[in-house]
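Section 3.1: Structural characterization of target chains.
Under the original work plan, the team committed to producing a structural model for every single-chain target entering the pipeline before any wet-lab resources were allocated. The record below documents one such target. The sequence was received from the expression subgroup and is listed exactly as submitted; it comprises 303 residues.
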Amino acid sequence: MANNLDDIFSAKTAEKQSKASSSHSKPYNKDSWAEDKQLEREQVYKLIDDTAEQVVSDEQRFKEFLDASARLNLYSTGNTLLILAQKPSAIRLADFEKWKEEGAYVNKGEKGINILEPGEEYTRDDGTVGTSYNVKKVFDITQTSAEQKTQPAVNRDERILLKALMALSPVPISTSDSLNGNTQSLYKPQEKVILVQKGMNAQNIFRALSLEIAHARMDNGENTRNDYAFCAYAVSYIVSKRNGIDVSGYNFSNLSERFSGLEPKDIRDDLSFVRSVSDEMIRDMDKSLNPPHKSQSKNSPSR
């Protein structure tokens, strides 16, 4: 005679009740959730400040920041610092859903990289409008199953590259054979002109000219050349690195002199200034070097 199986119904009911009880043991609490999110944001902001202080206290770390800025120019200064702190070698980043859309999956055990993304706008007590930021997890392509295609080396014609750089200048550029000492190029704010020493090779012209164009673009008519010297030099490094120019000769040994005693906010402001100028120059050069095809421009909506 078969065993009586009626007990499985009571057992199943008990199991469900147990699971239900367990799932409701920690009810959703809006205030607790908000506190957790706030703590998460505070930790991310602290990581930005800590990393900013680290990159300006060591020349090698500073160059790593500049390299990341050249490679990841679409990210803000804060997010570049976050990426540098968590995944210095990052190449291409996307969130879980974006990788999934591309038919790739995040490798098991990979840890997400925390960055900040804009959230809702809000009105401050003084009436100004601010933007809240939320923590978002992204993953580098090296953390996924996506195929990592080796980018072919870009060997652009030297003249094309230099012409694209020259187009960035807000003032005329002229050659000269009378610059003093080792000066290879010089922005003269009074005459509103950039002079370039004759007879240099393309790499030297690019480095020297990118520095002086940075000075010209930073000139607001109020500050002296020395006020912009460090930032312009860093901009020249980023733009040169982005365009395949050798940057091994750049020297940032004066970091401690430049940033000594500055608060994290002041450091971030300086780094953001460097990024704003270099990002504009990179964007404008990319447009010049990679113009849209006629078919693309014809179909592009007017703005």
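The first helix runs from residue 7 to 23.
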